[in-house]
């Protein structure tokens, strides 16, 4: 955040010397990036508050809310401002003055943002595994890293667009190119805003665990000797590092209540060992039959929201 603020000041100084709308758009872009990071820090801090009567599952989703604000407000403001400046510069072009300032600041910023982007990539590699980058951004449950990755990618591309606009304006002597570079920055920010808004909206509504995590949970449940099989399971992320698990499990018909209780305790322990973020677990014991299983699947297919399979 401090680095982005320093880059924003450098870009703004270059704008004052050059009058370049691309430099002004990039200044606003860097200020927006700093604001984004401040909001993510606030969301991270507020998400750590203890649960209470009003919010019994805690405040983990605060991180999703602030990431959504980043997408909708700050990126959108940056995009709208850049688009307006680009259109204005194309309509009323003027030559870029003292272009050396713009070139010097842009090259410095590209180096700095490149280092930041490299750091974000190295951090993400620990979590990405064999997934593609698109899949990683779509499935990531912690919003901060995808936001920073897209921020840094957008910052690098925005600097390249600004460099293109300023260079073309200087080479051709036509200030309209400066406006074209600014428009390109605006479109870039708008695209990033849309992508982030869609992803964080999905997290706000409520996403379940990934298929791999659900398979681990089912395997842990069925490894308990008192559990015959998993009849039904639902998961929900209460926050990036907190998962709710609700499952109906089949137990043996001749088990005593004490044996069922021990089996449930053992199953919960196995789940937490396999998936440490599974913090809230509700297990409902039941007797399994093929007829009831088919009826439940038919009810889910007909009306998923009212399948009747509720964990208690």
TrEMBL record:
User: What GO terms describe the biological role, i.e. biological process, of this protein?
Assistant: zinc ion transport
Q: Which SUPFAM superfamilies match?
A: Cation efflux protein cytoplasmic domain-like (SSF160240), Cation efflux protein transmembrane domain-like (SSF161111)
Ranges for region Disordered: 293-312
Cellular component GO terms held in the UniProt record: membrane
Alphabetically ordered keywords of this record: Membrane, Signal, Transmembrane, Transmembrane helix, Transport
Q: Where is the Cation efflux protein cytoplasmic domain?
A: 212-281
**All copies of domain Cation efflux protein transmembrane, residue ranges:** 2-204
List localization entries: Membrane
Question: One Pfam family of this protein, by short name?
Answer: ZT_dimer
Q: Entry's InterPro entries? A: Cation_efflux, Cation_efflux_CTD, Cation_efflux_CTD_sf, Cation_efflux_TM, Cation_efflux_TMD_sf, SLC30A9
**Can you tell me where the transmembrane regions are?**
64-87, 99-121, 153-173, 180-198
Q: Name one GO molecular function term.
A: monoatomic cation transmembrane transporter activity
Keyword Signal belongs to the record: yes
**Signal peptide interval:** 1-25
| Recorded topology in the membrane | Multi-pass membrane protein
- Low complexity bias locations: 296-312
PANTHER family linked to this entry: HUEL-CATION TRANSPORTER, PROTON-COUPLED ZINC ANTIPORTER SLC30A9, MITOCHONDRIAL
What protein does this entry describe? Answer: Cation diffusion facilitator family transporter
Species of origin: Sphaerisporangium rubeum
Q: What is the lineage of its organism?
A: Bacteria, Bacillati, Actinomycetota, Actinomycetes, Streptosporangiales
């Amino acid at each position: 955040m401090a680095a982005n603020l320093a880059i924003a000041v450098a870009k703004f100084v270059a704008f004052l010397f050059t009058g370049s709308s691309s430099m002004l758009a990039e200044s606003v872009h860097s200020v927006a990036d700093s604001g984004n990071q401040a909001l993510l820090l606030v969301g991270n801090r507020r998400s750590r508050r203890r649960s209470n009567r009003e919010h019994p599952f805690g405040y983990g989703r605060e991180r999703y809310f602030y990431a959504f604000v980043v997408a909708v407000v700050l990126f959108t403001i940056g995009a709208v401002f850049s688009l307006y400046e680009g259109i204005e510069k194309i309509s009323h072009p003027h030559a870029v003055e003292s272009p050396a300032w713009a070139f010097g600041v842009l090259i410095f910023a590209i180096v700095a943002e490149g280092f930041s982007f490299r750091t974000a990539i190295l951090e993400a590699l620990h979590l990405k595994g064999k997934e593609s980058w698109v899949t990683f951004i779509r499935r990531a449950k912690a919003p901060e890293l995808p936001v920073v990755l897209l921020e840094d990618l957008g910052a690098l591309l925005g600097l390249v667009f600004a460099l293109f606009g300023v260079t073309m304006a200087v080479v051709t002597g036509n200030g309209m190119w400066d406006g074209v570079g600014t428009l390109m920055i605006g479109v870039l920010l708008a695209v990033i805003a849309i992508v982030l808004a869609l992803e964080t909206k999905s997290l706000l509504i409520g996403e379940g665990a990934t298929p791999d995590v659900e398979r681990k949970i089912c395997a842990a449940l069925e490894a308990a000797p008192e559990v015959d099989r998993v009849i039904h399971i639902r998961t929900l992320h209460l926050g990036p590092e907190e998962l709710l698990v609700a499952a109906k499990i089949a137990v043996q018909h001749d088990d005593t209540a004490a044996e069922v209780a021990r089996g449930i305790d053992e199953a919960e322990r196995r789940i937490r060992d396999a998936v440490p973020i599974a913090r809230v677990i509700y297990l409902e014991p039941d007797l399994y039959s093929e007829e009831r299983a088919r009826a439940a699947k038919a009810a889910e297919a007909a009306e998923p929201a009212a399948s009747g399979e509720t964990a208690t």
